[in-house]
């Protein structure tokens, strides 16, 4: 998560120094390039990401005199769904990382849709996920189909979809691939067969908090320090909030990711949500979640700035409050399709309701309200799937510093929105996973005492106002569906 209001997720690598009181003592960040070779594509250079992490570690170590003598453990949290293929013999990446929001795999999705008579939910019972460009397996299949070096390494047995001395991942990351059995928390032979992927190319799956992830051996300032926590970014935020059964969190980054802890057994969604891991710390400490994925949140602000619709992020809140409402203007940021609960790759972005009376304040409101309205759709689906209403939502991420956003979220969901004093919740989650394993904290109860609330937000509008708002929003979304163009064969080759 970013401490600056100017930045949102997926764009940078960060290293945090966190003490026993769960206070962030220092942060170092390096941005990496977003590589878009074609419309709908998004890649990252894995070597650049690794280099940035090393630089960040070295910088915070210098400033804080860190070494293996005073660093108790390291926790890692990462983008989920993003895929990199490495050659086991050379340790080099065979292609750039294909990012979670990349849409090049539409042709792969269509192949599986045709194979299963249009049923994109055919694998949900096994892996908890629909067939969609979002998830890792279709990206792996694309690499095998389109990148000769990856295909050759796969056939020779030298391909690895992770890199290093220890070929490992945790169950939260594995749960986002479509290849893990959501019940057994191990790779599914059936799903591997469906996608034509060899099990030996995949990392071993472990719990998020483990003493078996190895130790740092190539970065002098922290050589010998154990890695005892590995967890996907959204699950890490769940742990950072210490999300209890029945509780919900929302992280406002590049997109919004709303997870509800549903307890020790997976809950299958019939309303467009995802069945996934919440977090797993070991024996008797595995929790599942229902997740709603909103594809665009902070990314919409970055886009609006880039085309001149909005100015500095720090001015957005006052700009939104310069008008009484959105002036009946709605913005659907479906730049490359729309995720939960629709799962429509053919949706495209739109702004509707503009008149000669529309001001920059109305446009700013529409853009900032959009992820809150999308979140409201997810909260409604969660209530239907779980059988009870959401009453409180814990929030974090770059946009959560904006009071207008959180008040809008409370208004559109009629849910209490709670913001913690410490904003780096995702990083804190990774620290908790790592620290618990080495006894830095004795147990979850000790950690819980150290978390402080900043403030909460409750709805200020009536039920009829809320219903009218959500109805108008639904009309806008319906107009965005089906407007997308299909990628040509030339574009995906």
From TrEMBL:
GO MF annotation: an example: ATP binding
Family annotation (Pfam families): FGGY_C, FGGY_N
Family matches, as SUPFAM superfamilies: Actin-like ATPase domain
Example of a GO biological process term: glycerol catabolic process
Domain Carbohydrate kinase FGGY C-terminal: 249-435
One GO term describing the cellular component: mitochondrion
Residue ranges annotated for the Carbohydrate kinase FGGY N-terminal domain, each copy included: 8-240
Taxonomic superkingdom: Eukaryota
Enzyme nomenclature, EC number: 2.7.1.30
Keyword Kinase attached: yes
Pathway in which the depicted protein is active: Polyol metabolism; glycerol degradation via glycerol kinase pathway; sn-glycerol 3-phosphate from glycerol: step 1/1
Keyword flag ATP-binding: yes
Keywords for this protein: ATP-binding, Glycerol metabolism, Kinase, Nucleotide-binding, Transferase
Catalysed conversion reaction: glycerol + ATP = sn-glycerol 3-phosphate + ADP + H(+)
Similarity comment: Belongs to the FGGY kinase family.
Cited NCBIfam families: PRK00047.1
Protein name, as recorded: glycerol kinase
Gene it is expressed from: Contig3124.g3341
